Amino acid sequence: MSKSFKKSKKPEDSFNLIKYKKIPFSKLIKFCSKNLLKERLFYVLNFCNILVSILIGVLLGFVKQGNKQVIIFNFYILFFTCCLLFVLILKMIQFFFNKNLEDKTTYIVLTNQVSRSKFFISQYFLMNLIIVINILLSFVFINLAYSIFNSFKYDSFILKMTLVYLLYNLFASFCLINFISMLMFLFSLQTTTIICTLLVSLCFVANIPMSFVKANEKSYNIEFLTKDKNLEIFKLNDVYDTYTLNKNILENKIKYPYLSKYIYKYFIDNKFLKDQFSNKKNIDLRIKMWDELGLINKQKVIINENDLKLFSKPSRNNKVPSSWTRNDLFDLTLTLNNTFISNEQLDQLIINTTNLDKKNILLDFKNFSKEINNYFKNDLQTSKYDLLYDFLFLDDLKNSNYLIKKNNLNQIYQLSKTDLKNIYEYELLADTSDGFKFYNSKNLINKLNFNLMYIARILENYFIRYSSNYTILSTSRVLKDQLDWSTYFTTRTKMKYFSYLNLYNGLWTFYTSNLGFYYKDIWFAPASDSFIKLEDQKNLFLGYLEYDLELLKNDVISKNTTNNYTKPRLYLIILLIINAFSFLIAFLKFKKKDF
Protein backbone atom coordinates (compact mmCIF):
# COMPACT_ATOMS: atom_id res chain seq x y z
CA MET A 1 0.00 0.00 0.00
CA SER A 2 2.80 2.34 0.84
CA LYS A 3 4.53 1.79 -2.51
CA SER A 4 1.27 2.19 -4.32
CA PHE A 5 0.56 5.43 -2.56
CA LYS A 6 3.98 6.89 -3.36
CA LYS A 7 3.69 5.93 -7.00
CA SER A 8 0.31 7.50 -7.45
CA LYS A 9 1.23 10.74 -5.71
CA LYS A 10 4.70 11.22 -7.13
CA PRO A 11 3.55 13.43 -10.04
CA GLU A 12 1.85 15.83 -7.68
CA ASP A 13 4.10 18.84 -7.12
CA SER A 14 2.37 19.69 -3.87
CA PHE A 15 3.67 16.57 -2.19
CA ASN A 16 7.22 17.50 -3.09
CA LEU A 17 6.82 20.38 -0.67
CA ILE A 18 5.96 18.14 2.29
CA LYS A 19 9.63 17.46 2.96
CA TYR A 20 10.04 21.12 3.99
CA LYS A 21 9.05 21.98 7.54
CA LYS A 22 8.93 25.57 6.42
CA ILE A 23 8.40 25.98 2.68
CA PRO A 24 10.76 28.61 1.19
CA PHE A 25 9.20 31.53 -0.67
CA SER A 26 11.09 30.61 -3.86
CA LYS A 27 9.71 27.05 -3.77
CA LEU A 28 6.24 28.42 -3.28
CA ILE A 29 6.63 30.68 -6.31
CA LYS A 30 7.95 27.75 -8.34
CA PHE A 31 5.00 25.62 -7.31
CA CYS A 32 2.47 28.32 -8.30
CA SER A 33 4.28 28.87 -11.60
CA LYS A 34 4.14 25.18 -12.53
CA ASN A 35 0.43 25.13 -11.87
CA LEU A 36 -0.11 28.17 -14.07
CA LEU A 37 1.99 26.74 -16.90
CA LYS A 38 -0.51 23.93 -17.27
CA GLU A 39 -3.04 26.45 -18.59
CA ARG A 40 -3.13 26.64 -22.40
CA LEU A 41 -4.77 30.07 -22.41
CA PHE A 42 -1.71 31.44 -20.63
CA TYR A 43 0.47 30.45 -23.61
CA VAL A 44 -2.03 31.84 -26.11
CA LEU A 45 -2.17 35.25 -24.41
CA ASN A 46 1.62 35.49 -24.11
CA PHE A 47 2.09 34.49 -27.74
CA CYS A 48 -0.47 37.13 -28.82
CA ASN A 49 1.39 39.73 -26.77
CA ILE A 50 4.70 38.99 -28.51
CA LEU A 51 3.16 38.73 -31.98
CA VAL A 52 1.17 41.97 -31.72
CA SER A 53 4.20 43.81 -30.28
CA ILE A 54 6.34 42.76 -33.24
CA LEU A 55 3.61 43.76 -35.70
CA ILE A 56 3.15 47.22 -34.15
CA GLY A 57 6.94 47.75 -34.15
CA VAL A 58 7.09 46.95 -37.87
CA LEU A 59 4.07 49.17 -38.57
CA LEU A 60 5.64 52.10 -36.71
CA GLY A 61 8.78 51.61 -38.78
CA PHE A 62 6.78 51.53 -41.99
CA VAL A 63 4.88 54.75 -41.17
CA LYS A 64 7.37 57.62 -41.30
CA GLN A 65 5.16 60.54 -40.22
CA GLY A 66 5.34 61.12 -36.47
CA ASN A 67 1.73 62.27 -36.15
CA LYS A 68 0.47 59.05 -37.75
CA GLN A 69 2.74 57.00 -35.50
CA VAL A 70 1.08 58.59 -32.47
CA ILE A 71 -2.41 57.85 -33.82
CA ILE A 72 -1.54 54.21 -34.57
CA PHE A 73 0.22 53.65 -31.25
CA ASN A 74 -2.70 55.07 -29.26
CA PHE A 75 -5.04 52.54 -30.86
CA TYR A 76 -2.53 49.82 -30.07
CA ILE A 77 -2.32 50.72 -26.38
CA LEU A 78 -6.11 50.60 -26.19
CA PHE A 79 -6.05 47.06 -27.58
CA PHE A 80 -3.10 45.94 -25.45
CA THR A 81 -4.29 47.41 -22.14
CA CYS A 82 -8.02 46.88 -22.46
CA CYS A 83 -7.92 43.49 -24.17
CA LEU A 84 -4.70 41.48 -23.89
CA LEU A 85 -3.49 42.77 -20.53
CA PHE A 86 -6.95 42.89 -18.99
CA VAL A 87 -7.82 39.31 -20.03
CA LEU A 88 -4.44 38.00 -18.83
CA ILE A 89 -4.90 39.61 -15.41
CA LEU A 90 -8.48 38.40 -15.09
CA LYS A 91 -7.58 34.81 -16.05
CA MET A 92 -4.62 34.69 -13.63
CA ILE A 93 -6.73 35.98 -10.75
CA GLN A 94 -9.47 33.48 -11.59
CA PHE A 95 -6.87 30.72 -11.74
CA PHE A 96 -5.14 31.50 -8.44
CA PHE A 97 -8.01 32.80 -6.35
CA ASN A 98 -10.87 30.71 -7.69
CA LYS A 99 -9.98 27.61 -9.66
CA ASN A 100 -7.01 26.47 -7.58
CA LEU A 101 -8.80 27.12 -4.32
CA GLU A 102 -11.20 24.36 -5.34
CA ASP A 103 -8.27 21.89 -5.31
CA LYS A 104 -8.80 20.99 -1.64
CA THR A 105 -6.04 18.37 -1.40
CA THR A 106 -3.32 20.66 -2.67
CA TYR A 107 -4.32 23.63 -0.58
CA ILE A 108 -4.94 21.68 2.63
CA VAL A 109 -1.36 20.39 2.37
CA LEU A 110 0.01 23.84 1.61
CA THR A 111 -1.98 25.78 4.19
CA ASN A 112 -0.88 23.37 6.89
CA GLN A 113 2.75 24.27 6.19
CA VAL A 114 2.48 27.87 4.92
CA SER A 115 0.81 30.83 6.55
CA ARG A 116 -2.07 32.22 4.57
CA SER A 117 -0.34 35.59 4.45
CA LYS A 118 2.75 34.09 2.85
CA PHE A 119 0.66 32.04 0.46
CA PHE A 120 -1.37 35.08 -0.65
CA ILE A 121 1.72 37.23 -1.07
CA SER A 122 3.45 34.56 -3.17
CA GLN A 123 0.54 34.36 -5.62
CA TYR A 124 0.12 38.15 -5.64
CA PHE A 125 3.85 38.58 -6.29
CA LEU A 126 3.81 35.99 -9.08
CA MET A 127 0.90 37.67 -10.88
CA ASN A 128 2.64 41.04 -10.77
CA LEU A 129 5.90 39.46 -11.91
CA ILE A 130 4.23 37.80 -14.91
CA ILE A 131 2.54 41.06 -15.92
CA VAL A 132 5.81 43.00 -15.57
CA ILE A 133 7.57 40.43 -17.77
CA ASN A 134 4.79 40.65 -20.37
CA ILE A 135 4.95 44.44 -20.48
CA LEU A 136 8.76 44.43 -20.65
CA LEU A 137 8.69 41.87 -23.46
CA SER A 138 6.18 44.00 -25.34
CA PHE A 139 8.40 47.06 -24.86
CA VAL A 140 11.50 45.19 -26.06
CA PHE A 141 9.84 43.58 -29.09
CA ILE A 142 8.25 46.85 -30.26
CA ASN A 143 11.57 48.68 -30.15
CA LEU A 144 13.52 45.75 -31.58
CA ALA A 145 11.11 45.29 -34.51
CA TYR A 146 11.10 49.04 -35.20
CA SER A 147 14.90 49.18 -35.06
CA ILE A 148 15.41 46.18 -37.37
CA PHE A 149 12.84 47.46 -39.87
CA ASN A 150 14.69 50.81 -40.03
CA SER A 151 18.17 49.26 -40.37
CA PHE A 152 18.92 50.16 -36.72
CA LYS A 153 18.29 53.87 -37.30
CA TYR A 154 16.36 54.85 -34.21
CA ASP A 155 13.99 57.72 -33.49
CA SER A 156 14.12 59.09 -29.93
CA PHE A 157 10.39 59.87 -30.09
CA ILE A 158 9.59 56.15 -30.51
CA LEU A 159 11.68 55.40 -27.43
CA LYS A 160 9.87 58.10 -25.46
CA MET A 161 6.49 56.81 -26.65
CA THR A 162 7.24 53.21 -25.67
CA LEU A 163 8.73 54.26 -22.31
CA VAL A 164 5.51 56.10 -21.43
CA TYR A 165 3.63 53.01 -22.62
CA LEU A 166 5.78 50.83 -20.34
CA LEU A 167 5.31 52.97 -17.23
CA TYR A 168 1.60 53.50 -17.84
CA ASN A 169 0.88 49.79 -18.25
CA LEU A 170 2.90 48.90 -15.16
CA PHE A 171 0.77 51.25 -13.09
CA ALA A 172 -2.51 50.30 -14.80
CA SER A 173 -1.87 46.56 -14.37
CA PHE A 174 -0.99 47.10 -10.70
CA CYS A 175 -4.35 48.85 -10.24
CA LEU A 176 -6.25 46.13 -12.11
CA ILE A 177 -4.66 43.26 -10.14
CA ASN A 178 -5.62 44.84 -6.83
CA PHE A 179 -9.12 45.83 -7.86
CA ILE A 180 -10.06 42.55 -9.60
CA SER A 181 -8.59 40.55 -6.70
CA MET A 182 -10.86 42.42 -4.34
CA LEU A 183 -13.87 41.76 -6.59
CA MET A 184 -13.02 38.04 -6.70
CA PHE A 185 -13.25 37.77 -2.92
CA LEU A 186 -16.29 40.03 -2.52
CA PHE A 187 -18.45 38.55 -5.27
CA SER A 188 -19.01 35.32 -7.13
CA LEU A 189 -17.02 34.44 -10.24
CA GLN A 190 -19.98 35.26 -12.50
CA THR A 191 -20.56 38.65 -10.87
CA THR A 192 -16.86 39.49 -11.02
CA THR A 193 -16.78 38.60 -14.72
CA ILE A 194 -19.76 40.88 -15.41
CA ILE A 195 -18.16 43.77 -13.51
CA CYS A 196 -14.89 43.24 -15.40
CA THR A 197 -16.76 43.28 -18.70
CA LEU A 198 -18.19 46.65 -17.72
CA LEU A 199 -14.70 47.85 -16.81
CA VAL A 200 -13.43 46.88 -20.26
CA SER A 201 -16.31 48.84 -21.80
CA LEU A 202 -15.35 51.87 -19.73
CA CYS A 203 -11.92 51.81 -21.37
CA PHE A 204 -13.56 52.78 -24.65
CA VAL A 205 -16.29 55.14 -23.43
CA ALA A 206 -14.53 56.99 -20.59
CA ASN A 207 -13.79 60.00 -22.81
CA ILE A 208 -17.13 60.05 -24.66
CA PRO A 209 -18.83 62.57 -22.29
CA MET A 210 -16.10 65.16 -22.89
CA SER A 211 -16.21 64.46 -26.62
CA PHE A 212 -19.93 65.24 -26.66
CA VAL A 213 -19.36 68.44 -24.68
CA LYS A 214 -16.67 69.65 -27.09
CA ALA A 215 -18.82 68.77 -30.09
CA ASN A 216 -21.63 70.95 -28.73
CA GLU A 217 -19.21 73.80 -27.99
CA LYS A 218 -18.37 74.17 -31.68
CA SER A 219 -21.52 76.22 -32.16
CA TYR A 220 -20.91 78.55 -29.19
CA ASN A 221 -20.22 82.25 -29.79
CA ILE A 222 -18.52 84.21 -27.02
CA GLU A 223 -18.92 87.99 -26.87
CA PHE A 224 -16.10 90.28 -25.74
CA LEU A 225 -15.98 93.98 -24.96
CA THR A 226 -12.63 95.42 -26.06
CA LYS A 227 -10.73 98.13 -24.22
CA ASP A 228 -12.01 100.52 -26.93
CA LYS A 229 -15.60 99.55 -26.00
CA ASN A 230 -16.15 97.66 -29.24
CA LEU A 231 -18.06 94.38 -29.35
CA GLU A 232 -16.11 91.40 -30.70
CA ILE A 233 -17.64 87.95 -31.22
CA PHE A 234 -15.46 84.84 -31.36
CA LYS A 235 -16.26 81.20 -31.90
CA LEU A 236 -15.40 79.29 -28.73
CA ASN A 237 -13.22 76.95 -30.81
CA ASP A 238 -11.23 79.94 -32.08
CA VAL A 239 -10.67 81.11 -28.51
CA TYR A 240 -9.31 77.70 -27.54
CA ASP A 241 -7.16 77.45 -30.68
CA THR A 242 -5.70 80.89 -29.97
CA TYR A 243 -4.62 80.06 -26.42
CA THR A 244 -3.48 76.53 -27.26
CA LEU A 245 -1.32 77.75 -30.15
CA ASN A 246 0.09 80.52 -27.96
CA LYS A 247 1.19 77.89 -25.42
CA ASN A 248 2.62 75.61 -28.12
CA ILE A 249 4.68 78.39 -29.68
CA LEU A 250 6.07 79.69 -26.39
CA GLU A 251 7.01 76.14 -25.35
CA ASN A 252 8.54 75.29 -28.77
CA LYS A 253 5.92 72.58 -29.33
CA ILE A 254 5.48 73.27 -33.02
CA LYS A 255 7.26 72.67 -36.31
CA TYR A 256 9.91 75.35 -37.03
CA PRO A 257 9.91 76.43 -33.35
CA TYR A 258 12.57 79.17 -33.57
CA LEU A 259 11.02 80.89 -36.56
CA SER A 260 7.50 80.56 -35.16
CA LYS A 261 8.41 82.12 -31.83
CA TYR A 262 10.32 84.95 -33.52
CA ILE A 263 7.42 85.97 -35.77
CA TYR A 264 4.66 85.39 -33.22
CA LYS A 265 6.34 87.32 -30.40
CA TYR A 266 7.17 90.18 -32.76
CA PHE A 267 3.51 90.41 -33.77
CA ILE A 268 2.35 90.27 -30.15
CA ASP A 269 4.91 92.83 -28.95
CA ASN A 270 3.87 95.26 -31.70
CA LYS A 271 0.15 94.57 -31.10
CA PHE A 272 -0.58 93.90 -34.77
CA LEU A 273 -4.27 93.48 -35.57
CA LYS A 274 -5.42 91.69 -38.68
CA ASP A 275 -7.60 94.53 -40.01
CA GLN A 276 -4.69 96.99 -39.62
CA PHE A 277 -1.96 94.66 -40.78
CA SER A 278 -1.43 96.36 -44.16
CA ASN A 279 -1.29 99.99 -43.10
CA LYS A 280 1.98 101.82 -43.80
CA LYS A 281 3.20 101.86 -40.20
CA ASN A 282 2.75 98.12 -39.77
CA ILE A 283 4.24 97.31 -43.18
CA ASP A 284 7.36 99.25 -42.20
CA LEU A 285 7.56 97.32 -38.92
CA ARG A 286 7.14 94.02 -40.75
CA ILE A 287 9.97 94.86 -43.17
CA LYS A 288 12.08 95.78 -40.15
CA MET A 289 11.40 92.32 -38.68
CA TRP A 290 12.74 90.58 -41.77
CA ASP A 291 15.58 93.08 -42.11
CA GLU A 292 16.80 92.19 -38.61
CA LEU A 293 17.33 88.66 -39.89
CA GLY A 294 19.31 89.95 -42.88
CA LEU A 295 16.71 88.91 -45.46
CA ILE A 296 16.25 92.38 -47.02
CA ASN A 297 18.46 93.82 -49.75
CA LYS A 298 20.07 97.12 -48.80
CA GLN A 299 20.57 98.08 -52.44
CA LYS A 300 17.89 99.17 -54.87
CA VAL A 301 16.93 96.64 -57.52
CA ILE A 302 16.47 97.98 -61.07
CA ILE A 303 14.36 95.95 -63.49
CA ASN A 304 14.44 96.72 -67.22
CA GLU A 305 12.16 95.09 -69.76
CA ASN A 306 12.29 95.98 -73.46
CA ASP A 307 9.96 95.54 -76.42
CA LEU A 308 6.77 95.04 -74.45
CA LYS A 309 3.88 94.76 -76.92
CA LEU A 310 0.81 96.70 -75.78
CA PHE A 311 -2.53 94.91 -75.61
CA SER A 312 -4.54 97.61 -73.80
CA LYS A 313 -4.09 100.76 -71.77
CA PRO A 314 -6.14 102.43 -69.00
CA SER A 315 -9.21 104.00 -70.56
CA ARG A 316 -9.86 106.48 -67.76
CA ASN A 317 -6.34 107.75 -67.14
CA ASN A 318 -5.70 111.14 -68.76
CA LYS A 319 -1.97 110.91 -68.12
CA VAL A 320 -1.60 108.09 -70.64
CA PRO A 321 -0.78 109.52 -74.11
CA SER A 322 -3.77 109.18 -76.41
CA SER A 323 -1.49 108.22 -79.33
CA TRP A 324 -0.56 104.93 -77.69
CA THR A 325 -2.38 102.07 -79.39
CA ARG A 326 -2.48 98.29 -79.41
CA ASN A 327 0.66 96.54 -80.71
CA ASP A 328 2.91 99.53 -79.94
CA LEU A 329 6.26 98.55 -78.42
CA PHE A 330 7.47 99.89 -75.07
CA ASP A 331 10.43 99.78 -72.73
CA LEU A 332 9.76 99.55 -68.99
CA THR A 333 11.97 100.44 -66.03
CA LEU A 334 11.28 99.72 -62.36
CA THR A 335 13.32 100.68 -59.31
CA LEU A 336 12.42 98.64 -56.23
CA ASN A 337 13.36 99.09 -52.58
CA ASN A 338 13.35 96.52 -49.76
CA THR A 339 13.41 93.45 -51.95
CA PHE A 340 14.21 90.05 -50.46
CA ILE A 341 17.50 88.28 -50.98
CA SER A 342 17.75 85.18 -53.17
CA ASN A 343 17.89 81.57 -51.97
CA GLU A 344 21.61 81.45 -52.76
CA GLN A 345 22.20 84.57 -50.67
CA LEU A 346 20.21 82.97 -47.83
CA ASP A 347 22.54 79.96 -47.86
CA GLN A 348 25.55 82.25 -47.61
CA LEU A 349 23.87 84.31 -44.87
CA ILE A 350 23.35 81.18 -42.77
CA ILE A 351 27.02 80.22 -43.19
CA ASN A 352 28.19 83.69 -42.14
CA THR A 353 25.81 84.03 -39.15
CA THR A 354 27.55 83.42 -35.82
CA ASN A 355 24.65 84.20 -33.46
CA LEU A 356 23.13 80.80 -32.65
CA ASP A 357 19.56 82.06 -32.08
CA LYS A 358 19.54 83.95 -35.36
CA LYS A 359 21.10 81.00 -37.17
CA ASN A 360 18.36 78.66 -35.90
CA ILE A 361 15.68 81.08 -37.11
CA LEU A 362 17.29 81.31 -40.54
CA LEU A 363 17.61 77.53 -40.77
CA ASP A 364 13.91 77.19 -39.95
CA PHE A 365 13.15 79.78 -42.62
CA LYS A 366 15.23 77.91 -45.19
CA ASN A 367 13.61 74.55 -44.35
CA PHE A 368 10.15 76.09 -44.54
CA SER A 369 10.95 77.62 -47.93
CA LYS A 370 11.93 74.17 -49.18
CA GLU A 371 8.65 72.71 -47.92
CA ILE A 372 6.56 75.42 -49.60
CA ASN A 373 8.47 75.26 -52.89
CA ASN A 374 8.13 71.48 -52.96
CA TYR A 375 4.41 71.78 -52.29
CA PHE A 376 3.64 74.44 -54.91
CA LYS A 377 6.32 73.33 -57.38
CA ASN A 378 6.51 76.20 -59.93
CA ASP A 379 3.06 77.55 -59.10
CA LEU A 380 3.82 79.58 -55.97
CA GLN A 381 3.71 83.01 -57.64
CA THR A 382 0.37 82.28 -59.32
CA SER A 383 -1.23 80.65 -56.28
CA LYS A 384 -0.15 83.42 -53.91
CA TYR A 385 -0.07 86.34 -56.36
CA ASP A 386 -1.76 88.80 -53.98
CA LEU A 387 1.01 88.47 -51.40
CA LEU A 388 3.25 90.71 -53.51
CA TYR A 389 1.41 93.97 -52.93
CA ASP A 390 2.29 94.71 -49.29
CA PHE A 391 5.99 94.35 -50.05
CA LEU A 392 6.07 96.03 -53.47
CA PHE A 393 8.08 99.21 -52.79
CA LEU A 394 8.50 101.44 -55.85
CA ASP A 395 11.23 104.05 -55.51
CA ASP A 396 9.85 107.56 -54.96
CA LEU A 397 12.41 109.40 -57.09
CA LYS A 398 11.18 110.85 -60.37
CA ASN A 399 11.82 108.74 -63.48
CA SER A 400 12.55 105.68 -61.36
CA ASN A 401 9.48 103.77 -62.60
CA TYR A 402 8.31 104.55 -66.09
CA LEU A 403 7.04 103.30 -69.41
CA ILE A 404 8.44 104.75 -72.61
CA LYS A 405 7.31 104.18 -76.16
CA LYS A 406 9.90 102.59 -78.39
CA ASN A 407 11.70 105.14 -80.59
CA ASN A 408 9.79 108.01 -79.01
CA LEU A 409 11.65 109.25 -75.94
CA ASN A 410 9.30 112.19 -75.48
CA GLN A 411 6.37 109.97 -74.51
CA ILE A 412 7.12 108.84 -70.94
CA TYR A 413 4.53 107.61 -68.48
CA GLN A 414 5.28 107.38 -64.74
CA LEU A 415 4.15 103.96 -63.54
CA SER A 416 2.21 103.59 -60.32
CA LYS A 417 1.73 100.58 -58.07
CA THR A 418 -1.77 100.14 -59.54
CA ASP A 419 -0.36 100.00 -63.08
CA LEU A 420 2.12 97.35 -62.10
CA LYS A 421 -0.64 95.40 -60.35
CA ASN A 422 -2.72 95.38 -63.56
CA ILE A 423 0.21 94.15 -65.67
CA TYR A 424 0.99 91.50 -63.05
CA GLU A 425 -2.55 90.13 -62.70
CA TYR A 426 -3.18 90.08 -66.44
CA GLU A 427 -0.13 87.91 -67.04
CA LEU A 428 -0.79 85.55 -64.13
CA LEU A 429 -4.59 85.45 -64.05
CA ALA A 430 -5.70 86.88 -67.40
CA ASP A 431 -7.51 89.58 -65.45
CA THR A 432 -9.63 91.79 -67.76
CA SER A 433 -10.04 94.85 -65.55
CA ASP A 434 -9.11 98.29 -66.89
CA GLY A 435 -5.36 98.97 -66.97
CA PHE A 436 -2.09 98.29 -68.77
CA LYS A 437 -1.79 94.86 -70.37
CA PHE A 438 0.95 93.46 -72.56
CA TYR A 439 1.10 90.43 -74.81
CA ASN A 440 4.61 89.47 -73.74
CA SER A 441 5.05 90.49 -70.09
CA LYS A 442 5.89 87.01 -68.77
CA ASN A 443 9.60 87.74 -68.47
CA LEU A 444 8.84 90.91 -66.51
CA ILE A 445 6.61 88.98 -64.10
CA ASN A 446 9.35 86.39 -63.63
CA LYS A 447 11.70 89.17 -62.56
CA LEU A 448 9.15 90.13 -59.87
CA ASN A 449 9.13 86.58 -58.52
CA PHE A 450 11.06 87.15 -55.29
CA ASN A 451 10.70 83.66 -53.87
CA LEU A 452 11.67 84.42 -50.28
CA MET A 453 9.28 87.38 -50.22
CA TYR A 454 6.38 85.01 -50.92
CA ILE A 455 7.68 82.65 -48.22
CA ALA A 456 7.80 85.50 -45.71
CA ARG A 457 4.30 86.67 -46.62
CA ILE A 458 2.90 83.15 -46.25
CA LEU A 459 4.39 82.98 -42.77
CA GLU A 460 2.93 86.35 -41.85
CA ASN A 461 -0.53 85.25 -42.92
CA TYR A 462 -0.20 82.06 -40.93
CA PHE A 463 0.44 83.87 -37.66
CA ILE A 464 -1.40 87.19 -37.89
CA ARG A 465 -4.83 85.62 -37.39
CA TYR A 466 -3.84 83.96 -34.12
CA SER A 467 -1.61 86.74 -32.79
CA SER A 468 -4.34 89.29 -33.56
CA ASN A 469 -6.93 87.15 -31.78
CA TYR A 470 -4.64 86.77 -28.78
CA THR A 471 -4.02 90.52 -28.61
CA ILE A 472 -7.77 91.15 -28.55
CA LEU A 473 -8.76 88.26 -26.26
CA SER A 474 -6.08 88.91 -23.65
CA THR A 475 -7.21 92.52 -23.20
CA SER A 476 -11.00 92.23 -23.64
CA ARG A 477 -13.72 91.50 -21.11
CA VAL A 478 -16.00 88.47 -21.48
CA LEU A 479 -19.70 89.35 -21.40
CA LYS A 480 -20.78 86.65 -18.95
CA ASP A 481 -24.51 87.36 -19.14
CA GLN A 482 -24.87 85.99 -22.69
CA LEU A 483 -26.37 82.51 -23.11
CA ASP A 484 -23.49 80.63 -24.74
CA TRP A 485 -21.01 81.64 -22.05
CA SER A 486 -23.42 80.66 -19.26
CA THR A 487 -24.04 77.28 -20.91
CA TYR A 488 -20.32 76.76 -21.41
CA PHE A 489 -19.45 77.65 -17.82
CA THR A 490 -22.21 75.48 -16.32
CA THR A 491 -21.37 72.45 -18.46
CA ARG A 492 -17.64 72.70 -17.82
CA THR A 493 -18.22 72.98 -14.06
CA LYS A 494 -20.30 69.78 -14.11
CA MET A 495 -17.66 68.01 -16.20
CA LYS A 496 -14.99 69.06 -13.71
CA TYR A 497 -16.82 67.36 -10.84
CA PHE A 498 -17.62 64.35 -13.01
CA SER A 499 -13.94 63.97 -13.87
CA TYR A 500 -13.16 63.27 -10.21
CA LEU A 501 -15.36 60.16 -10.47
CA ASN A 502 -14.29 59.20 -13.99
CA LEU A 503 -11.05 57.60 -12.83
CA TYR A 504 -10.58 55.55 -15.98
CA ASN A 505 -10.48 58.74 -18.01
CA GLY A 506 -8.14 60.20 -15.42
CA LEU A 507 -5.80 57.26 -15.88
CA TRP A 508 -5.80 57.79 -19.65
CA THR A 509 -5.12 61.49 -19.04
CA PHE A 510 -2.02 60.50 -17.09
CA TYR A 511 -0.83 58.54 -20.14
CA THR A 512 -1.62 61.17 -22.80
CA SER A 513 -0.23 64.08 -20.77
CA ASN A 514 3.13 62.32 -20.53
CA LEU A 515 3.09 61.08 -24.12
CA GLY A 516 2.08 64.41 -25.66
CA PHE A 517 2.02 64.77 -29.43
CA TYR A 518 4.56 64.63 -32.20
CA TYR A 519 5.03 68.39 -32.21
CA LYS A 520 7.27 68.44 -35.29
CA ASP A 521 4.14 67.73 -37.34
CA ILE A 522 1.97 70.43 -35.81
CA TRP A 523 1.91 73.06 -38.53
CA PHE A 524 -0.31 75.04 -40.88
CA ALA A 525 -1.86 73.54 -43.99
CA PRO A 526 0.46 74.81 -46.79
CA ALA A 527 -2.28 75.99 -49.16
CA SER A 528 -4.34 77.71 -46.46
CA ASP A 529 -4.16 81.32 -45.37
CA SER A 530 -4.08 80.37 -41.70
CA PHE A 531 -5.35 76.92 -40.78
CA ILE A 532 -3.64 74.65 -38.29
CA LYS A 533 -4.78 71.35 -36.81
CA LEU A 534 -3.81 71.35 -33.16
CA GLU A 535 -5.70 68.23 -32.08
CA ASP A 536 -5.67 65.88 -35.07
CA GLN A 537 -3.40 63.45 -33.16
CA LYS A 538 -6.01 62.95 -30.44
CA ASN A 539 -7.77 59.62 -30.04
CA LEU A 540 -11.54 59.67 -29.51
CA PHE A 541 -11.35 57.00 -26.78
CA LEU A 542 -8.49 58.47 -24.73
CA GLY A 543 -8.72 61.23 -22.15
CA TYR A 544 -6.64 64.39 -22.52
CA LEU A 545 -5.90 67.44 -20.41
CA GLU A 546 -8.82 69.78 -21.07
CA TYR A 547 -8.40 73.25 -19.65
CA ASP A 548 -11.27 75.59 -18.83
CA LEU A 549 -11.22 79.29 -19.66
CA GLU A 550 -10.26 81.06 -16.45
CA LEU A 551 -11.42 84.64 -15.93
CA LEU A 552 -9.61 87.22 -13.85
CA LYS A 553 -11.45 89.64 -11.58
CA ASN A 554 -12.00 92.04 -14.48
CA ASP A 555 -13.53 89.18 -16.55
CA VAL A 556 -10.53 89.03 -18.89
CA ILE A 557 -9.28 85.55 -19.79
CA SER A 558 -6.16 84.70 -17.81
CA LYS A 559 -2.95 84.35 -19.82
CA ASN A 560 -2.32 81.16 -17.81
CA THR A 561 -5.72 79.68 -18.62
CA THR A 562 -4.08 76.71 -20.40
CA ASN A 563 -2.96 75.50 -16.95
CA ASN A 564 -6.51 75.53 -15.58
CA TYR A 565 -7.16 71.78 -15.62
CA THR A 566 -7.41 68.90 -13.16
CA LYS A 567 -3.86 67.75 -12.48
CA PRO A 568 -3.21 64.08 -13.42
CA ARG A 569 -1.41 63.48 -10.13
CA LEU A 570 -4.76 63.89 -8.35
CA TYR A 571 -6.05 60.80 -10.18
CA LEU A 572 -2.89 58.91 -9.24
CA ILE A 573 -3.35 59.74 -5.56
CA ILE A 574 -7.01 58.63 -5.63
CA LEU A 575 -6.10 55.42 -7.47
CA LEU A 576 -3.28 54.64 -5.04
CA ILE A 577 -5.70 55.03 -2.12
CA ILE A 578 -8.24 52.75 -3.83
CA ASN A 579 -5.44 50.26 -4.53
CA ALA A 580 -4.37 50.20 -0.91
CA PHE A 581 -7.94 49.47 0.22
CA SER A 582 -8.44 46.89 -2.56
CA PHE A 583 -5.28 45.03 -1.60
CA LEU A 584 -6.16 45.13 2.09
CA ILE A 585 -9.69 43.82 1.50
CA ALA A 586 -8.46 41.01 -0.78
CA PHE A 587 -5.75 40.08 1.72
CA LEU A 588 -8.12 39.96 4.71
CA LYS A 589 -10.78 38.06 2.76
CA PHE A 590 -8.19 35.48 1.68
CA LYS A 591 -7.05 34.95 5.26
CA LYS A 592 -10.62 34.28 6.37
CA LYS A 593 -11.60 32.16 3.37
CA ASP A 594 -12.67 28.61 4.14
CA PHE A 595 -10.66 26.11 2.11
What does this structure look like?
This protein is an alpha+beta fold and 595 residues long. Among the domains are: 219 residues, no CATH class; 184 residues, no CATH class. 60% of the residues lie in helices and 7% in strands. It contains 22 helices and nine strands. The strands form two sheets. Strands 3, 4, 5, 6, 7 and 8 form a six-stranded antiparallel beta sheet that branches. Strands 2-1-9 form a three-stranded antiparallel beta sheet. Helix 5 packs antiparallel against helix 9. It is elongated. The N terminus is likely disordered.
Features:
single chain, 595 residues, alpha+beta, three-stranded antiparallel β-sheet, 9 strands, elongated, disordered N terminus
Mean pLDDT: 90
Strand content: 5-15%
**Structure annotation, total helices:** 22
Oligomer: single chain
Shape: elongated
User: Are there runs of 5+ residues with pLDDT below 50, and where?
Assistant: 1-12
- Percent of residues in helical segments? 55-70%
Distance between the termini: 28 Å
Task: Label the structural class.
Answer: alpha+beta
Gyration radius, rounded: 35 Å
Question: How many strand segments?
Answer: 9
Task: Describe the main β-sheet briefly.
Answer: 6 strands, antiparallel
Write the layout of secondary structure elements.
Layout: H1 2-9, H2 13-16, H3 25-36, H4 40-62, H5 66-99, H6 104-113, H7 116-149, H8 156-186, H9 189-205, H10 208-217, E1 221-225, E2 231-235, H11 236-250, H12 257-269, H13 280-291, E3 301-312, E4 329-337, H14 343-352, H15 356-376, H16 380-383, E5 393-394, E6 402-405, E7 412-414, H17 417-429, E8 437-438, H18 442-447, H19 451-473, E9 477-478, H20 483-501, H21 503-515, H22 568-592
Antiparallel strand pairs: 1-2, 1-9, 3-4, 3-8, 4-5, 4-6, 6-7
Helix pairs in contact: 3-7, 4-5, 4-7, 5-8, 5-9, 7-8, 8-21, 8-22, 10-20, 11-19, 12-15, 12-19, 14-15, 15-19, 21-22
